[in-house]
Amino acid sequence: MSDTQIRHGKRRFYDNTKFPRGFAKSGDFTLAEEEILTIYGDTFVSLESGELAPANEEEKHFIEVLDNPELANSKHERTWLKYVRLARGRKRFHTLNGRNKSEGGEDFADEDTSIVEED
């Protein structure tokens, strides 16, 4: 992880609220991404909140990426954006019951789909 100018965090970064078993065990992050978040996450949070001023060009670019995610070009920036999306974004909820419409506009949810047993 020495290919970056981003400073290591003062402490290891964990999110016990959204990822109580760890980043990698959540199934959302690779081991490399977990390492990036754990080592640099504290710095990323501080840069994002403004508590820490950027010390070099890479940290300045990180601040720009927060406003324009399409500018992300490093693994560190993409990993942080992924974390923000998963931790702060809306959680998708999948249900087995829903309204499905066919291409013709028919609403299948209104049809009687109850099971009738015949003797």
Automatic annotation (TrEMBL):
Family: Belongs to the MaoP family.
Coiled coil regions in record: none
Residue numbers spanned by region Disordered: 95-119
Biased segments, Acidic residues type: 105-119
Species annotation: Vibrio agarilyticus
Protein name from the UniProt record: Macrodomain Ori protein
Organismal lineage: Bacteria, Pseudomonadati, Pseudomonadota, Gammaproteobacteria, Vibrionales
InterPro entries: DUF413
Domain of life: Bacteria
TM segment ranges: none
